[in-house]
Amino acid sequence: MQAMKLIKQKFNKAASRYEQYDQVQKHIAKELIERLNTTNENIVEPINNIIDVGCGTGNLFLKLQNLYPDATITGMDIAVNMLQQNSFCYHHNICADFRKLPFGKNTYDLAIANMSLHWQDNLALTLNNIFNIMSKNGSVAFSIPIDGSLLEIKQAYKDLPNHTSAKNNFIDHKTLENILANYRILDITYKTNTLLFDNFTNILQHFKHTGTSYYYPNKTSGLKTIEHIKQLECAYMKQKTNAGKLPLSYRIAYVVIGQKENI
């Protein structure tokens, strides 16, 4: 409960400047729509009602509208400030979180979630909650960062003088696939997306303004904040590319699933 309050606060605070720093989310949204488009022929249910779970500032809306021009699209997010940023686009906006979705059965034909499901600590339960509001042959498409994401910041922490571990709550691919075994898998694709930054300050800005600072940087190391950041920057600089850029990688699973016929 406390974790979700912190996440909600982070995204409400980040909302006004989120779109200036969400380049990775936009790129992954494009990839997710492409994966969804390639599996359209395997989706049984006509797509009349769509919910964007954790819609944020609305990266997916126009892409979904182009793919399903006749569908009604609802945006749902835990952070009301995020919804205010996208109020011009979705047909309906709902402020709610994944633990208690305020919808009945057979409400949606397609649920889509771009870089949002990892904020919940129980993916299996979250998917079950989502399918409870889906039509019989409804589908769920999502992108999720998995273990292997943000390895550069993790390595930088290892190189700190007193070596404190960075937070990392990303699911590993084996656990993910065990959860997905309960569903009809229409598509699962793994890709690594790497951002390149001019300096470490820009990386910190990326974390701060996309809500990722809930995970990083870790301020519980016992170091004063300024000293901690300086040491972390020095450690991170060891990973600079030949072109002088600082990399930051996200390992992403793109998934499209439906209910198994016997469920």
CATH architecture of the domain at 2-149 and 169-193 and 251-259: 3-Layer(aba) Sandwich
* CA radius of gyration: 19 Å
Strand order of the main beta sheet, please? 3-2-1-4-5-7-6
Shape: globular
Low-confidence stretches: 219-224
Count of individual helical segments: 9
The helix-strand sequence is HHEHEHEEHEHHEHHE
Mean pLDDT: 85
What's the CATH class of the domain at 2-149 and 169-193 and 251-259, please? Alpha Beta
CATH level 3 topology of the domain at 2-149 and 169-193 and 251-259: Rossmann fold
* End-to-end Cα distance: 30 Å
DSSP E strands, number: 7
Strand content: 15-25%
Helix content: 25-40%
Based on helices, strands and strand pairing, what is the structural class? Answer: alpha/beta
Q: What do we call the CATH homologous superfamily of the domain at 2-149 and 169-193 and 251-259?
A: Vaccinia Virus protein VP39
